Amino acid sequence: MSTIGRFLQAKEPLFDHALHQLELQSGQKSVDVKLAAEIAETAAAKLKVLGLAHYATGPQIYDALIKQVAIHDAHLAHKIGGTDPSDLAEMIPLIVKAAEAAPLPKDGWFLKVDKAKDMLRAHPPVAVMERLGYHLVSQMLEHEDIYELFLSLRFAEDAAWLNDFDALYVSLQATDFEPRRIKVVPFDRGKWGDIAEHFIAKKRHNITHSKEMGAIAVMPMTEDRMTGVTLKVMPLLFHYFNEIRLYSTFFKLMQTKKNFGEIVAETLIADPAHIRLTEHSHIHWRVIQRYFGKLTGEVHPEEFEPHVQPEDLHWRRAEEVLYEIDPELDFWRGLDFVAVLKDQDTITFNLMDLSLGYSNAVTYADRYLYHFRESLWNEVFARYLGEKVLEEQLLHKLDNAVIKPEKLDMKAGKK
Fold it and tell me: CB–CB of 216/240 below 8 Å?
């Protein structure tokens, strides 16, 4: 198996077949080999910065990277005005304020507030109403923030209620959406208590989002103190700014489809935003949006017009924004898809995986690799898309129906 395949823990022979087909269609050979060499060179340079020899063991590399995260977390916390980096009551408002002021795109195309209220009137969220002390949904909608209510649904309501509510999305039309800015909603612990306790225990972080409302939730935590909270939460906020915008752009692209509401509903439930490019590979809209988003402004496919414009495609990696806020973090530049192999173990340099590992006191054996693998997978396809012939094939397929993918069967890895 190739180095990239080992990094991804891809199932063979599907992975090799997918790469072979991409090579045939793009006319570009050995992209994975070139990428693996680039990753090895970058990793070797960073090991030198950390004072490690090339023969350093996996645990030694992981320990050094975690220590680097600890240093940078404290530095960033002080940079945004914090005095105690582990004090949640102090740091969360500062993190939210810094994220809202950060230099990255925050506009999108989202469900209208009035339509969101109509949906809750049509199917009142009884568990949310009970938690907040309301008997009438009209009273709740008058006094409560609609973004907060929508973000709370997945935590407060049961599966049966959510399934019935999801059915309302099928009837949505493009006229039910409007342009506005993404909103960050910090949940008050005194008001919401332990509503997100199970989510936080499972995900090991407290950030989630609503694609359709264009809102990011900072859920309440029961702890008063948390190690590494700044580098844990801030990159996730930036990640969800990008995530919300990419689905916003996808919905804008789909708005003329007769089954627009079905596409929205299915995307929110099962995320079928994949385009079948070859027999063995599907490219997610995430890769497509990021590929065109990093091109120069004048490069904009006619297939996207008139609804999707270059500014809709703009995105910025989380760490790029971080080291504009704090140049000390420049160490992490371009490392989101970088890793090394040691005795068949993958040790990633991905900041999001490492910052979550530091904050959650994750051991070497249980280290996170999820964000690294997602970034690497996206990078592989983005590099193939650089070939004009493949780009044109993709745009042609994108203009047709969006189908549910038969995604490559890759092991989930550590999350």
Answer: yes
Residue 312: name the closest of 399, 246, 244 by CA. 246
Classify burial at 118, counting beta carbons within 10 Å of its beta carbon; exposed 0-12, middle 13-18, buried 19 or more. Answer: middle
Burial class from Cβ neighbours inside 10 Å (0-12, 13-18, 19+) for residue 63 reads: middle
Is position 404 within any domain? no
Kindly report the number of other CB atoms within 10 A of residue 149's CB atom: 22
Domain that holds residue 24: 3-398
SS (H, E, C) 240-270: HHHHHHHHHHHHHHHCCCCCHHHHHHHHHHH
In a domain, 413, yes or no: no
SS3 281: strand
Tokens of 11: 């199932």
**How many domains would you assign to the chain?**
1
Q: What is the pTM assigned to this prediction?
A: 0.80
Residue 322 lies in a domain: yes
Main-chain phi, psi angles of 14, to 5 degrees: -60, -40
Residue 177 lies in a domain: yes
More confident residue, 141 or 4: 141
Residue-wise pLDDT for 95-144, tens only, equals 999 999 998 889 999 999 999 999 999 999 999 999 999 999 999 999 99
Write the CA distances from 181 to 93, 95, 236, integer angstroms. 19, 18, 18
Percent of the chain predicted with pLDDT > 70:
79
% pLDDT > 90, the chain: 58
Q: State the Cα–Cα distance between residues 310 and 209, nearest whole angstrom.
A: 24
